Input
Amino acid sequence: MSKVMVVTSGKGGVGKTTSTAALGAALAQAGQSVVLVDFDVGLRNLDLILGAERRVVFDLVNVVQGDAKLPQALIRDKRLESLYLLPASQTRDKDALTNDGVQAVIAELRERFDWIVCDSPAGIEKGATLAMRFADVAVVVANPEVSSVRDSDRIIGMLDSKTLRAERGEDIEKHLLITRYDAARAARGEMMKVEDVLEILAVPLLGVVAESPEVLTASNLGCPVTLHNPTGPAARSYSLAARRLMGEDVPMEAPASRRGLMSRLFGRKAAA
Amino acid sequence: MTLHAETTPQPGPKAAPQTPLQVTPPQATPASPGLQVRGRSFMALVVTPQVPLAAWFADLDAQLRDAAGLFADRPVVVNLSQAAAEGRDATLILLDGLETRGLRIVGLEGAIPQLLTATHWERLPTQLHGREVAEVRALKRPDAAPAAQPASAQPASLLIDGPVRSGQSIVFEAGDVTVVGAIASGAEVIAGGSIHVYGALRGRAIAGIRQGAAARIFCGRMEAEMVGIERLYRTAEHWGPELHGRPAQLRCDRGALRLSALD
Output
């Protein structure tokens, strides 16, 4: 049975696209067939993160408007054969997407894939509402800081009211993914703690991804972080999150970045 | 208390009451087209004070508390047919009393002219022609009011079984709002009665827009951006950090908001 999953946050720059690519790649590594759909029409990024930017011919807008067939627009990943990308258009804007058109494309994708992962644009306008509209599952990405948390709260409210499932009176499965977490700074009170974020958002936790330089490195190389360095802490967090999405009962690991550990060691030395 | 609405042709040419408003250029000034006088009818409310006047005023005050806008921007005609029997002093006190309550008296009915001589009421028209309008404002009797209100509908409270998210606005004028969960930063709940929050109150809560000063706000954790009752409000900077994060109650005490911890 296929699942439509939206990765959303409200606020920009918290790691939606990075998380879409990493979770999608992790699901594909686990043997699922996955398509990543970029809904950020006009500001597409997912193709870059996946290193597919030079292979884009047709895009989501072409398919929605009937100018291209879906198989023409799908780009298969060169590293994982069950991972596909449906890119966004960079030259159009979000008004080029229509409710009916998106619904038809999603229905077609449902027949071919286990997971349809929709990368939402930032904001709460048309692009974001269309990206979440047909979702069964939502991954809400938040950074441990107040503005991101409040925007995520707003998005959760919209998931509960503006999606098709919500309008039918059904529940939409929601998960919280905290990214750019720095355990050391949280311990010093410079950053919100995981518990604080959970207390405010009241959504089950999918995972905590520590702040890590390897994430940016992987993005710049056009490779999902789960493929770039599968043993690194960020990749491990995303892989565990993907297993939880597939219904496995994986216990949470205490988030600790390598830098956090170092600074804790130094902190102890200084104290001694 | 009963009120009657009447159309009252304003002082001017004596038109038949039934004739609808018509432009009637006054015949006395045919040569000056610059001056135009128009006849127009307005809806006036006719109040008929009953004796004893003290009890009648108590009823009136109760009505005004329930519906403050009842007489707003409405011309009022006072029917003195009963009150005039109380004598000149009582009549003058009655009219002053109505005026201090904000009623705009434009005319009198049933007055004995000598009662009002040498007062500023003397110049008010006493011979008004009007007709009863079908739409008579039947006001609820104050003694019947408490029984009639709750019987009319289901319990006037709203239960929200979960958090109120940022950007959501819950407006429930009919009564109390109970939230089982938090009210997020950037969310607001507005209630006609009291607000009960079994969680953290981080956004805005305004209580008592119907019930007034008797409404209260209770919350499991006080972290609000703004709280208010009726027309009074406070923002977070008005209360100190000692209340932050504690269960708290907000109430209106003699015209001032009081915020106190519940633990």
